Amino acid sequence: MKTNQDISPSIAILGVPLEDGTHEKGCLMGPDALRTAGIIETLEGLGHHTADHGNLTPRQVTAASTRSGSARNFEAIAGWTQALADMAYAMAQDTFPIFLGGDHALSIGSVAGLARHAAECSRPLYVLWLDAHPDFNTPATSQSGNIHGMSVAAFCGDPDLAGLYAEPLRHPVHPSHVHMIGIRSVDLDERLRLQEQRVLVNDMRVIDEVGVIRPLQQLIDEVKATNAMLHVSLDVDFLDPSIAPAVGTTVPGGATFREAHLIMELLHESECVTSLDLVELNPFLDHRGMTAELMTDLTASLFGRKIFDRRTRHPGPQTGPQ
Fold first, then answer.
1. Which residues pair with 255 in a beta bridge?
2. Nearest-angstrom CA–CA distance, 320 and 322
């Protein structure tokens, strides 16, 4: 008789302490905060064999500059991207990779490596982008020049970001294979590019009107119909800041605790997800680790924890008169 350990996928954890994609310091502490919150013990407690590969070290590279606009720390992010793309490709061969961030620029590398693996398996790669921002700016459209706001544009093959990769991107993700949920902060030029390139954007107005099930089921149906692989990229600012304050780009009106867990539970039941990013966790801005714990709990839901298995949270130490 097979045990849960026998049939569970092997999970590979990789920390990516990258913060060059944003103006806010602190994301480099994100991977270790997630480990401290017990992400490995939680996954193993659900019966999954988990291997921690430590934290990634970027390469020292001389990257080609962009042709127009502004992209801050371009060479530094190229070093992270090239190291991570190769590592993601290697990890995807026989494990379920989880990338602990680090800011969202890490997806430029993780998705590229996963797309290469999917192409070699003759399968498309879909990306579920759970974020307050579409991150579809380019150096020419970005107001800040922060590359974490250009991640999707990069792995979809924007030519002004091609220099981030060691060689021409052979397997860009088709923009129509990117499904976004939770969007609520979009630049004007970015909005036009999203429409032109047919990225599917479900903003919080859609979630308010129809809930999370309908747009998520549309994605799951497409993935199953095309025998695709599905990468989930979860940004802390997808969540409402009242439950997840540890992020430098807070936008009010994000996903609730139940909406976020429902998404993860439905994804688990779909059996479609093949890889995961957990990004933009800034422990310096957290309250007693509550955001790191929530991201860990959401990962547990993705890997099979049921609502009736969820542990009771205990209040922190009380202060004042007893």
1. 239
2. 6
316 occurs within a structural domain: no
- Say what the pLDDT of residue 6 is: 46
Calpha distance 134→137 (Å, rounded):
8
**Residue tagged active-site, from 48, 117, 148, 171:** 148
Dist. CA 129–CA 181, nearest whole Å: 6
Local mean pLDDT, 10-residue blocks, the chain (322 residues): 49 98 95 98 96 97 76 95 98 97 98 98 98 96 95 97 94 98 95 96 96 97 98 98 93 96 97 98 96 98 81 49 36
Comparing C-alpha atoms, which of 132, 137, 141, 80 is closest to residue 107?
80
Distance in angstroms (rounded) separating the CA atoms of residues 142 and 147? 9
d(CA 179, CA 298): 19
Rounded distance, CA 15 to CA 35, Å? 9
Q: Of 48, 104, 117, 231, which residue is the catalytic one?
A: 104
Q: Residue 312 is encoded by which pair of tokens?
A: 């009771």
- Domain of 217 in residue numbering reads as 4-305
Respond yes or no: is residue 148 known to be catalytic: yes
Beta strands, E only, the chain: 11-16, 50-55, 96-101, 125-130, 178-183, 200-203, 229-235, 273-279
Whether 20 is catalytic is no
Contacts (Cβ under 8 Å, ≥6 apart) of 22? 103, 105, 146, 148, 248, 249, 280
Q: How far is CA 8 from CA 35, 95, 247, 304, 305, in A?
A: 21, 10, 32, 10, 13
Query: Which one from 19, 131, 158, 277 is the annotated catalytic residue?
Result: 131
| CATH number for position 59 | 3.40.800.10
The reply to whether 23 falls in a domain is yes
237 is catalytic: yes
pLDDT at 316: 47
Q: What is residue 317's predicted lDDT score, i.e. its pLDDT?
A: 44
For residue 258, tell me if it sits in a domain: yes
- The single residue of 103, 135, 286, 293 carrying the catalytic annotation is 135
pLDDT of residue 17: 98
pLDDT recorded at residue 319: 38
